[in-house]
Amino acid sequence: MSDLNDLHQLLQRFESGTLETDKDKFGDLRDRQLYLYGAGNVGKRLFHNLKANDITVTGFIDRNPAARPASIDVPVHLPNDPTLAAVRETCTIILSGLFPLKVCQDIKATLAALGFRHVYALHEVNFNQVNSGAFRETLFDDSYNKVDILGSDRCKLEHAFGLLQCDSDRALFLCYLKAHLTMDFTRLDEPMDISLQYLAHDIPEAKDYSCFIDCGGYDGDTFRQLAARGHKIHTLAGFEPQSDLYCKYAATLRDHPSRPDMAVLFPCGVYSETTQLRFATNAEAQSAARVSASGDSVIQCVSLDDALQGFAPTFIKMDIEGAETAALKGARGLIQHYGPSLAICVYHGLSDLWEVPCLIDSMRGDYRYYLRNYNYLGLETVLYAFPSLSK
Known about the structure:
Blueprint: H1 4-16, E1 34-37, H2 41-52, E2 57-61, E3 76-77, E4 92-95, H3 101-113, E5 119-121, H4 134-140, H5 154-163, H6 167-182, E6 211-215, H7 221-228, E7 235-239, H8 243-255, E8 262-266, E9 269-270, E10 275-280, E11 290-291, E12 297-302, H9 304-307, E13 315-318, H10 324-329, H11 332-338, E14 341-345, H12 352-363, E15 367-373, E16 381-387
Parallel strand pairs: 1-2, 1-4, 2-3, 4-5, 6-7, 6-13, 7-8, 9-12, 13-14
Antiparallel strand pairs: 10-11, 10-12, 14-16, 15-16
Helix pairs in contact: 5-12
């Protein structure tokens, strides 16, 4: 059983500096002949972080040998490169990508078949030995001051913990919090399959996706997942600010055999008010565009209350790169009036773990809350909220 006393003990250990970390699977990275699998954005960041901590990366392994970024000064090999034959049994490979469970398993199996014996995913690395865990924080630009947990945010943290419906939700909350406080994500349990995200398949609540708001629509992937599981969406309002992804989303809906009876797509972001904001985009990770004062592009944002007047949603999903709390504030009217079920991502910043449920609870006091994780490193963690009227 996980109760408030467990949370208090965790915070006490954090305050006293006695919060332990787990031992990782391979000790000091400096003692290894190290390769990174994946020369994309995550691989590039990890390479430079390791280099800054005097940890040598011998090379990259990637299915695209031309993938080497300009800032990387080591070779990029194909997985079956014969020049790697002599090191396959002794070298260490870290999968330097945010691969979901199934993809991670497939890559490991492929490399094992080629003779590589020591292959680890990012979540199996204890980043405490890499700049005190700063790699995980800089990767996701989480600037939250963790000392605030012991002061200004403590009451909200305790309130959010108490809102969770089940012991398993509270246990995940504690595990997620401890992983962030120690920067040791090896302690997190195996995630659920990413294809189950937003389905709340194991949660004993009625789900009604018939009038669906999709914030952070990407290329229509959430719609495809719901349709594949037999959920009929009659009316859909989707928001995707990146024009190339917006066009793919529109094509997905237009061509899908289970397309909604009516769909309205907005090439906009979602925020607390209708305004224009600067966004930082990433060519190597299209879904990772986020609000940034120094961003390279300006996008139109809208509040849901402004854009969808008279729209009666049954379900709202948000995965909008850290803008979830702002977007919820802009949906206050819809939430208070219609009480839709909610699936809100809470992994972009540590404080989202308590800010999001506390904000929703301040709007309506009849929601029941559940927490689920769908990827390694605590990524794709979703807070579900179901109102009493859904039972």
